[in-house]
Amino acid sequence: MPEILDQARTQVLGDGVGLDEAGVLAVLNLPDEHLPAALQLAHEVRMRWCGPEVEVEGIVSLKTGGCPEDCHFCSQSGLFASPVRSVWLDIPSLVEAAKQTAATGATEFCIVAAVRGPDARLMKQMREGVAAIRAEVDIQVAASLGMLSQEQVDELVDMGVHRYNHNLETCRSYFPNVVTTHSWEERWETLRMVRESGMEVCCGGILGLGETVEQRAEFAAQLAELDPHEVPLNFLNPRPGTPLGDRPVVEGKDALRAIAAFRLAMPRTILRYAGGREITLGDLGTRDGLLGGINAVIVGNYLTTLGRPATDDLKLLDDLKMPVKALSATL
Amino acid sequence: MTTSDAGHPAHPAAPGAWCDRCGEPAGTGDHPACRASRELEPPRYCAHCRRRMKVQVLPVGWSAVCVAHGEIRG
């Protein structure tokens, strides 16, 4: 057994203390023959410190495309020759999307907008949309609207938004290679305000942007320092027309190593499968990740791409005897 | 896959029209990457006129609107 896994068994599983950057790097560098042991340990950590429940979430794009930022992975930037056009979702369709999500048994519904930060029009749409959802659908509402001012943070709290997503996307040292129109520190500042407001912090990123293994470890350590309630883990799905459109997808075993390593860095967080798992891991790898530290999923479609049918994921959870977290457990 | 615009074929594109994923002529080459991607992507270009469509992806399903040829859903 590699020394790092022995250390993690005592430190993470036993004491609930996550691995530091060096420890995460050691896990990320484990040879293939030790990957099953790393996943098994990460699963034990998840079961001990989080429990068997899986949090299920649906997401929808309230405002698609036309974003002024240049996140190099994103098909919704208005700065690239992407085929994605700008479109707004109306309130009745938003409520219907929330109903569809709740019908899957999901407890979370995240409203997302492709913006640098919300303007008055978007905040008005949010206020009306969140009120309509809360009046008609039994589900927790989260939001992801880019960088916020303190006033906007306060307004979202007032609306009843209980969790805010703002991904750091990658580690601090690599971020300038991925985004040039704003800084990692600006994102961190929004996250600080969200945390202080009492909203739950949801912050993760994308693996496969061209970062090194060392930078993946740096990212895990920076997320652990932030200590978010939830970490959505995406794997790059290269989008036509974007600067990263020709990058290779992450190898399945590297993705699984990252899942185990991020779980061992953050034993208590909700570690969620987000975009890209279909092409990176496929069905078998998806199962391996759920048995290797993942304890939350986005079901159904994503913002501009399609996911597996929700019924497939729910059947998988049933097969694995992992109960879907009930709404009462999230309140 | 359905269409709300009777008379126009739904995704994927009809032979001889435009590829609804890359916007290139559908009859030129066999578009293997487009074919592979279609399971996990909604159409982006109108198969009749190559216009970029307004596409809304929802948790269940999607809709795509061409200003000239109407809406398709999947």
Automatic annotation (TrEMBL), chain A:
Query: What is the protein's given name?
Result: Biotin synthase
Query: Per its UniProt entry, which superkingdom is the organism in?
Result: Bacteria
Q: What is stated as this protein's family in its record?
A: Belongs to the radical SAM superfamily. Biotin synthase family.
Q: Please indicate if the UniProt record lists Glycosyltransferase as a keyword.
A: no
User: Can you give the residue ranges of the Radical SAM core domain?
Assistant: 52-277
Under the subunit heading, UniProt states: Homodimer.
Signal peptide interval:
none
Residues the entry annotates as binding [2Fe-2S] cluster? C110, C202, R272
Quote the HAMAP family the UniProt record gives: BioB (MF_01694)
UniProtKB/TrEMBL annotation, chain B:
Keyword Metal-binding on entry = yes
- Looking at the keywords, is Chloroplast present? no
- Where in this chain does the record put each Biotin synthase auxiliary protein C-terminal domain? 53-73
Could you tell me the superkingdom of the organism this chain comes from?
Answer: Bacteria
The cofactor required is: iron-sulfur cluster
Cite the InterPro entries for this sequence: BsaP_C
Q: What does this protein do?
A: Required for the activity of the biotin synthase BioB.
Lineage of producing organism: Bacteria, Bacillati, Actinomycetota, Actinomycetes, Micromonosporales
Protein's name according to its UniProt entry: Biotin synthase auxiliary protein
Question: What keywords are assigned to this protein?
Answer: Biotin biosynthesis, Iron, Metal-binding
Q: Which family does it belong to?
A: Belongs to the BsaP family.
Recorded coiled-coil stretches: none
